[in-house]
Design brief:
Layout: H1 10-32, H2 41-49, H3 55-66, H4 74-92, E1 102-103, E2 106-107, H5 109-113, H6 115-139, H7 144-158, H8 163-172, H9 180-205, H10 210-237, H11 240-243, H12 249-252, H13 257-261, H14 263-283, H15 289-300
Antiparallel strand pairs: 1-2
Helix pairs in contact: 1-4, 2-6, 3-4, 3-9, 4-6, 4-9, 6-7, 7-9, 8-9, 9-10, 10-14, 10-15, 14-15
The structure holds geranylgeranyl diphosphate.
């Protein structure tokens, strides 16, 4: 009997990758903070360094490696995704949006640094992230065209057709029942677009072939959906204290995969998307134990 490759020790892998990502985030802050007016530096640092799973950069690096990339400069590029993610959470928690006072088990950025500083610091992170992606591509020695493509991916995923557009639909949908198709569209933009861009950017930086990029794209789309369903399940079944965040979807009157399909069926849909993701990778000739393990982690995580 032939033995397959050993399973990834996911806990060890995630811990190790988080340390590298956080090192690259510190380096990014060293470049960004001196360019920012002093009164916004505290809020910006809080939003970027206050914990989190660092999933988007970890996925970006794993996609890069799956395509055969070997350089360490990828962590620098990968944290541009986390800078966008950080801004989105800082703004999402503001009183004019979800009005949250708890995130990752700690007070939200505006609770510590005030609303106006948090709004400005979040906005400052958007161009800073695009610039950081561009500069990272240059540092990695990538051709000018790839640098342009990477900034395009990041900008499209964060914009009106992506995260901002999805957030707007989410706000419109409060206290309304929406259809399953509308829910898919909302989350494909709000959460899925940046996750998908994480995979695509890792692939582009490693010089992926069109087939490899398609496989990463399909994987990204499937885990984006799985991630959101898992998020809805956690939200419905855990307390604010367990999750380290508030308010809940029910408190905000939001339609979710759980409110539409129930816990059992939502769980089945999430697992189905993990299979879609892993199959897409194999179909594109990409063997990555890390990406396989990350797809499972996305639905099995407890926060
Ligand atoms: C002005 C309409 C408008 C939008 C501004 C606020 C905003 C842009 C976008 C918000 C997008 C948003 C909140 C997406 C949610 C994504 C999500 C599920 C976040 C949680 O991700 P995790 O679990 O977080 O990866 P951690 O804490 O691990 O980093």
């Amino acid at each position: 009997m032939t033995e397959g490759p050993p399973e990834v020790d996911l806990k060890h892998f995630l811990a190790q990758e988080r340390v590298r990502v956080e090192g690259a985030l510190e380096e990014a802050l060293t470049a960004i903070l001196p360019r920012v007016p002093e009164q916004f530096r505290g809020a910006l640092r809080h939003g970027v360094t206050s914990g989190g799973k660092r999933l988007r950069p970890i996925l970006c690096v794993a996609a890069y490696r799956a395509v055969g990339g070997t350089g360490e400069g990828i962590y620098r590029l990968a944290v541009s995704l986390e800078l966008i993610h950080a801004y989105s959470l800082m703004h999402d928690d503001l009183p004019c949006m979800d009005d949250a006072d708890l995130r990752r088990g700690e007070p939200t950025t505006h609770k510590v640094h005030g609303e106006s500083s948090t709004t400005v610091a979040g906005a400052l992170l958007i161009p800073a992230a695009a610039l950081h992606a561009y500069e990272s591509a240059r540092t990695m020695g990538l051709p000018e065209e790839e640098g342009r493509l990477l900034v395009e991916e990041l900008s499209r995923a964060s914009g009106g057709g992506g995260m901002v557009g999805g957030q707007f639909l989410d706000l419109l949908g409060e206290d309304q029942e929406i259809s399953a198709e509308e829910l898919d569209d909302l989350h494909r933009r709000k959460t899925g677009a940046l996750l998908r861009a994480s995979l695509r950017m890792g692939g582009i930086a490693a010089g992926a072939t069109p087939e490899e990029l398609t496989a990463l794209d399909r994987y990204g789309e499937a885990i984006g959906l799985a991630f959101q369903i898992a998020d809805d399940l956690l939200d419905a079944t855990s307390s604010a204290q367990e999750l380290g965040k508030n308010p809940s979807d029910a408190e905000l009157g939001k339609s979710t995969y759980v409110s539409l399909f129930g816990i059992e069926e939502a769980g089945r849909k999430a697992r189905e998307q993990v299979t879609v993701a892993v199959t897409a990778l194999a179909g594109g000739g990409l063997a990555s134990r890390e990406l396989d393990a990350l797809a499972r982690y996305i639905v099995e995580r407890d926060r």
